[in-house]
Amino acid sequence: MTFCLGIKVADGLIGIADTRVTSGTARLTARKVTIHQHGKHSVFLMTSGLRSVRDKALTYFNHVLAENDEKYGKVYELVNAVARQVRRVAEEDQVALEKAGLHFNLHALVGGQLEQDTEHRLYMIYPQGNWVEVGTATPYYIIGESGYGRPILERTLTYESPLEYALKVGFLAFNATIRCSIDVDYPLDVVLYKKGTFDIVETRFDESELAPAAHDWQRHLCQSVEAMDASWTQRLLSRLPP
């Protein structure tokens, strides 16, 4: 399983991806983020799904990009190029995979800004090669293990959230996931893009580096529970025998 989170706020984009890869009984560490950047061309791509499908699709895409990079002026055009490679791999491998009992599965998040884009963009690509654009109403998308991190995002994140605030919320979504899923793990790759800069920055964090933030969140969470209104609990507790 995978945790990849893309966030689009007014100030820019955030990509967060774990590095745990499960292959049979083996658990490996592998990068799930790729960055393509030069001039006014800044895009990151994150994937979730079968590793063999992912590697093949990205190999095809990188070849296409190397030959045709200059013709892409908007992010959606590049997204279409990724989608075509996903469909190509499906045509080549889906039947064989299903005969072996494996489900063809590859989701991708593509975010960034190209020269002709009026703003930064974020897209999610399905295994069938169709895609949706992440908008302002729900300014994020998770691929992979999505259930544990979604509640904190739904409760706290808006399109107008500052970039630093959104980054903190994204980490909390990852933190909730790692506490509940054994197939999501550190190191954590984080990419940031500030609107209009055409410059993506990236950092990899080990668990020890983010432990203080995780412990701080745990402490505040427990304190918030203790400080909650307790009038409704007393109605029940008062009925218990002494």
What does the secondary structure layout of this molecule look like, with pairings?
Elements: E1 3-9, E2 12-18, E3 20-23, E4 26-29, E5 33-38, E6 41-49, H1 51-68, H2 75-99, E7 106-114, E8 121-125, E9 131-133, E10 140-144, H3 150-156, H4 163-180, E11 188-194, E12 200-205, H5 207-227, H6 231-237
Antiparallel strand pairs: 1-2, 1-10, 2-11, 3-4, 5-6, 6-7, 7-8, 8-9, 11-12
Give the CATH level 1 class.
Answer: Alpha Beta
Neighbour order of strands in the largest sheet:
10-1-2-11-12
- The secondary-structure element order is EEEEEEHHEEEEHHEEHH
Structural class: alpha+beta
- Any low-confidence stretches, pLDDT <50, length ≥5? none
By CATH, the superfamily comes out as Aminohydrolase, N-terminal nucleophile (Ntn) domain
Distance between the termini: 48 Å
Q: How many distinct beta strands?
A: 12
What is Rg? 20 Å
Number of domains: 1
Mean pLDDT across every amino acid position? 95
Write down the CATH topology.
Answer: Glutamine Phosphoribosylpyrophosphate, subunit 1, domain 1
| Global shape | globular
**What percentage of residues falls in helices of 4 or more residues?**
25-40%
Q: Which architecture would the CATH scheme give at its second level?
A: 4-Layer Sandwich
